[in-house]
Amino acid sequence: MRILGTGSFLPKKIVTNAMLSEFLDTSDEWIVTRTGIHSRHVISDESLEDMGTQAALRALQDAGLQASDIDYFVCSNVVSNWVTPSMSCIIAGRIGLQCPCIDINCACPGFIFALDIVENRYKAGNRGKALIVCVESPTRMCDWTDRSTCVLFGDGAGAVVLGEGDNILGVRLNSQPDPTKLWERRPMESTPYFTGDDSQKSLQMRGREVFKFAVGASTTEVEALLSDLSLTKDDVSYYMIHQANLRIIDAIKRFLGEDDSKFPTNIADHGNSSSASCPILLDECNKRGLFKEGDLLVFSAFGAGLLSGAAALRW
Ligand code: ACO
């Protein structure tokens, strides 16, 4: 497939590090040094479906298409107020889509998993156009008295519309299943019979282990993907890395031995918006005219699961 249009939406409330240090034992200096984050957009009176709808409409507009042109819709979302119907069905109803809709929960690499799904459907003969929306509010997953997690995240939505083309050159997906390094649990409804563990726990993270996993998975998969495609690092125009932490991106850059100028970032004023981070970055780079036709973009993302993925596409 080929990307025909991109869109994104960020909540209007901006929370700076100074605002966090009013109620947390933290500082701008600690957060900037350890993460590269200065501020983040945080959901206030918006809903997830508002954000996803706006991002989808902007991507459709960028592609010059209508909702009726879309034949398949994948929504990546980790958590929302809706248990059922799915977030994809809710957004589809808002924008007037009438095609199959599915949700995936692949945490931060959700955009790359969604690309894999639409590309493989296309290769299997489903030649229609696809919409991907990644909409996330990790700030609603954190305990806001826990300074080790809540300072890291921001909310938002990113979307792409894809159609006929052969610009997705390859995708690699991976997992190292482990529910102890990055997880959250919430209770379900009680019944007269259920006697199991139904405890609630906000987002828990073993930061250093996640850091090591992220750098290892990203560098290994990017190198393997390029080798699979008989490409070299010299062919890569831009690395579109999941915006989790500037130190993670710097470490990946160092391991790959690549130049700063190939790594666009927006972590400084966005924080980590889970699966929305890659398509938001893509949309912002697209809208500011960074890419030229033929550029090779290599995506890499990693997160809870632990899941990771890399994708190469020609702009
Ligand atoms: N402000 C001030 N001090 C803090 C803060 C804070 N916000 N958070 C933690 N600290 C303190 C800790 O309590 C600890 O204090 P102690 O030494 O007195 O016990 C000290 O800082 C060092 O804590 P560490 O956790 O060892 O700090 P580290 O250098 O590892 O940085 C961080 C923590 C930023 C979370 C880092 O481990 C990291 O970035 N990990 C990857 C996390 C990540 O990006 N996850 C997301 C990827 S997956 C996804 O996107 C969901």
Ligand list: acetyl coenzyme *A
Structural class: alpha/beta
CA-based gyration radius:
19 Å
- Biggest β-sheet: strands ordered side by side in the sheet: 1-7-6-4-5
Distance from first to last alpha carbon: 11 Å
Sheet with the most strands, sense and barrel status: 5 strands, mixed
Shape: globular
SSE succession: EEHHEHEHEHEEEEEHEHHHEE
Low-pLDDT residue spans: none
Strand content: 25-35%
Mean pLDDT over the residues: 97
* Percentage of residues in helical conformation: 25-40%
Number of helices: 9
Report the strand count.
13
Give a short synopsis of this structure.
With 315 residues, the chain is an alpha/beta fold. 31% of the residues lie in helices and 25% in strands.
Describe the structure.
It is a single chain. By secondary structure, this protein is an alpha/beta fold. The chain has nine helices and 13 strands. It has helices at residues 17-20, 28-35, 48-63, 87-95, 110-123, 207-228, 246-256, 267-270, 277-287, and strands spanning 2-9, 13-16, 39-42, 70-76, 101-104, 129-136, 156-163, 168-175, 182-185, 201-205, 238-241, 296-303, 307-314. Strands 1-7-6-4-5 form a five-stranded mixed sheet, with helices on both faces. Strands 8-13-12-11 form a four-stranded mixed sheet, with helices on both faces. Helix 4 (87-95) links the parallel strand 4 (70-76) and strand 5. It is globular, with a radius of gyration of 19 Å.
